[in-house]
Amino acid sequence: GLRDDAPSTIFDKIIAREIPSDVVYEDDVCLAFKDINPVAPAHIILIPKHRDRLTQLQFATDDHVFVLGHLMAKVGHIAKLAGLDSYRLVVNDGAQACQSVFHLHLHIIGGRDLSWPPG
Ligand code: 5GP
User: Where is the short sequence motif Histidine triad motif located (predicted)?
Assistant: First the structure.
């Protein structure tokens, strides 16, 4: 089922406008805002808004297919709003992968040359 029991995070406060953020895109399902500590000239965080939120992608179920599809479907539009035609999508999924906020989020990173493979 949906993980409505997940503890809230700072991203819920951003959704609720309890703390300010630089919003790039918003609709009923998702919110995209600029990362407060960018790793590139463009660094946008894209999150699901609702209480069916996922803490980590590895906990996704079939119940989350709509919201996951919605996030992926909006990435290109959000990147275009940010003036990007090349970018990297990152999900840090779990503490050892440097996930620090346990509300599923996609990093949209661009605006400079990005090396591959990453560190
Ligand atoms: P993670 O390491 O969990 O994948 O990424 C969390 C991201 O959220 C980090 O890049 C961090 O800079 C960003 N972040 C954390 N707190 C805030 C905040 O209050 N506002 C904004 N705009 N970004 C935040």
Answer: 103-107
ipTM for the assembly: 0.99
> What is the C-alpha to C-alpha distance for residues 9 and 17, in angstroms, rounded to an integer?
13
pLDDT along the chain (119 residues), means of 10: 75 96 98 98 95 85 94 98 97 96 97 90
Cβ-Cβ contacts under 8 Å for 58 (sequence gap 6 or more)? 93, 94
Active site residue 103: no
CATH number of 10-110: 3.30.428.10
Instruction: Sketch the domain layout of the chain as residue ranges.
Output: 10-110
Q: Which residue has the tokens 């906990």?
A: 59
If you write DSSP's letter for every residue of 17-30 in order, what string do you get?
TSS---EEEE-SSE
